[in-house]
Amino acid sequence: QFFLREEDVGQNRAEATLPRLAELNAYVAVTSTRQPLSQDMLAPFQVVVLTNSSLEEQLWVGDFCHSHGIKLVVADTRGLFGQLFCDFGDDMVVTDTNGEQPLSAMVSMVTKGCPGEVTCLDEARHGFETGDFVTFTEVEGMEELNSCGPVEIRVLGPYTFSIGDTSGFGDYVRGGIVTQVKMPKHIRFKRLREALVEPELMITDFGKAERPPIMHWGWQALHRFIRQHGHPPRPRHQGDAAEVVALTREVAPGAELDEELLRELAFQATGDLAPVNAFIGGLAAQEVMK
Questions:
Q1: pLDDT of residue 122
Q2: Both 169 and 194 in a single domain?
Q3: Which residues form the Ubiquitin-activating enzyme E1 FCCH domain (predicted)?
Q4: Which of 10, 21, 65, 176 could be disulfide-bonded to 107 (CB atoms 3.0-4.6 Å)?
């Protein structure tokens, strides 16, 4: 990491880092402790981020945080490999899923029916998705649309969507603007213990869409190896790498595995690269800000 210097070798990392970290923002109180993690220590926090922790520690901390309404982020790196897990509780309210400005489109036609169908001007696609909520303004003829609240839509095509029952409305004449409304969504996060069995994996590279589940199992195998041997697989050690592959087969019996990828994970298991730490740490920090 970036805050340590050569003269800090032999010192506790947290204590050596603390004064330099505290300089980043004088309004934030930063403390360190050498005490082992406990429920009493975690209880006052709103968010807990675990790094360099064993799977056993992650599980009990995850259970405690979930049951006490504390958000949990687990972040770890091994060489060029990294993982990130988030548990934001049973009822996380999300008001903006993508950070983009709400979409809008010009209306060219609204039919009377159940459901009614809305057609937008064909110069540009409306960009809406099924399940989105929209409002209408400046509609002539079918003025009821202007005063109704956000309505859920079902996309029928790039220029059309349906909006529910319009059979009792007036006849559409002309005009109108339809605007997307960002509605609060309630999301239930799985605790780590559940997610290990039934993970919801984020695919960031569709050219390597098969990798996330393999890595999910590989990290668990890595934890098993460390628990059994008391240390991570040795760098470039073929025997240790073969054992990690075998442990992965125990974690996911019958699954199709990329053995070369798993061996690479084992080869790099003692690696600690500041740029990778910064990248995974940046993702973790974004999740904390949410």
A1: 79
A2: no
A3: 114-182
A4: 176
CATH value at residue 150: 2.40.30.180
Q: Is the dihedral of CA 115, 187, 83, 227 positive or negative?
A: negative
Show Cβ contacts of residue 86 under 8 Å, excluding neighbours closer than 6 positions: 71, 72, 73, 74, 189, 287
Check whether residue 280 and residue 147 sit in a common domain. no
Residue 28 belongs to some domain of the structure: no
Q: Which amino acid is residue 141, in one-letter code?
A: G
Edge-to-edge strand ranges of the sheet holding 81-87 = 47-50, 71-78, 81-87
User: Could you write out the DSSP letters of every residue in 197-231?
Assistant: HS--PPPS-GGGTTHHHHHHHHHHHHHHHHHHHSS
The verdict on residue 254 lying in a domain is yes
Q: How many domains is the chain built from? A: 2
Residue 78, strand partner residues: 81
Q: What is the pLDDT of residues 214-234, one digit of tens each?
A: 999 999 999 999 999 999 999
Contacts within 8 Å (CB) and 24+ apart, 153-157: 153/118, 153/128, 154/115, 154/130, 155/128, 155/129, 155/130, 156/117
- Residue 284 φ/ψ, nearest 5 degrees: -60, -40
Cα-Cα end-to-end distance for the chain: 24
